């Protein structure tokens, strides 16, 4: 495999490995050996080491002294902690959009994403559905105008994606729940109803966290 794209080589390697972890091809506590990755992808060992540091920063692997890199565990405590933080940050974004939109054209990106979510749900395309759900977040970034918030969420996305895939692969019907939640959130944003924005996102976080915890218990 040869990588040629605008992203750095290390970032591309990290994305490739992240996708394998998110899809469950690389299992929890499984070792990721630098030399094997180097040979499989035909890249330098230095680039692989840099990619592993990126994955550690994104909470998908642990790099242990004298033991190397291994896929991080997804435990109930990790899931609970992740959702507590992520929903807090999502609320910050939701409030920023509710306070910041000025004209209908500001909301058009969200309406387009809403349509894509419905289409992805109808095709039962989990990968596209999860990516579209993250597009909601990215469309909100300009309203918040906070690079630290943006960087934090971008680094958490792989871990969030991992939980989404775990839950949706067992219960595809939950995509409809997400679509309904987003519709309610959009209504709250349009109405500039900050209480409703908080309520919708808190309920969403509690529901998703419980769903992922249930999926963990069923493994």
From TrEMBL:
<keyword id="KW-0804">Transcription</keyword>
<dbReference type="GO" id="GO:0003700">
    <property type="term" value="F:DNA-binding transcription factor activity"/>
</dbReference>
<keyword id="KW-0238">DNA-binding</keyword>
<dbReference type="InterPro" id="IPR011711">
    <property type="entry name" value="GntR_C"/>
</dbReference>
<dbReference type="GO" id="GO:0003677">
    <property type="term" value="F:DNA binding"/>
</dbReference>
<keyword id="KW-0805">Transcription regulation</keyword>
<dbReference type="InterPro" id="IPR036388">
    <property type="entry name" value="WH-like_DNA-bd_sf"/>
</dbReference>
<dbReference type="InterPro" id="IPR000524">
    <property type="entry name" value="Tscrpt_reg_HTH_GntR"/>
</dbReference>
<protein>
    <submittedName>
        <fullName>DNA-binding GntR family transcriptional regulator</fullName>
    </submittedName>
</protein>
<dbReference type="InterPro" id="IPR008920">
    <property type="entry name" value="TF_FadR/GntR_C"/>
</dbReference>
<dbReference type="Pfam" id="PF00392">
    <property type="entry name" value="GntR"/>
</dbReference>
<dbReference type="Pfam" id="PF07729">
    <property type="entry name" value="FCD"/>
</dbReference>
<feature type="domain" description="HTH gntR-type">
    <location>
        <begin position="7"/>
        <end position="74"/>
    </location>
</feature>
<dbReference type="InterPro" id="IPR036390">
    <property type="entry name" value="WH_DNA-bd_sf"/>
</dbReference>
